[in-house]
Amino acid sequence: MSVKDEDRIFTALAIRDTADHNSLVVATAEFRAETILLENGLDQAVTFQLQGSRNLTTWYDIGDTFNIAATTNDYQTVTDYFPFYRLVASCGISPTSGVLDVWILKARGI
Fold this sequence. Notes:
Blueprint: E1 3-13, E2 21-22, E3 26-27, E4 32-40, E5 46-53, E6 60-68, E7 72-77, E8 84-90, E9 100-108
Antiparallel strand pairs: 1-9, 2-8, 3-8, 4-7, 4-9, 5-6, 5-8
C-alpha cells in the first residue's frame, strides 16, 4: 500500500528582487521526495536549485539548476534521497508582479 503526502515550501512568495530565496525545509522522515510541483505566477523566469541535507547544517546542491519561465507551471522529479530538502529560488530580473507557489510531493511504499 502506498501513502502519499505533500509539503508546500513556497506560499504566494512575491519575489521583487534578484536575491536568493530559501524555501521552508521539508523533513522526509519515512517518506521519499518524488516530485517538485512549481507554479510560477511571476512575470519573470525563476532559477531553482534543489538542496539536500542530512543534519540541517550542511546543504548540498542536488543536480543542476533549472529554470521555469514566467507564468508557467512545471515539475521536476527528485531521484536522490536526503532526510531534509529545500529549494533556492532567484530571478535574473526583478519581477514586478505575481507570486510563486511550490510543493514537494512525497510517497512511501511505492
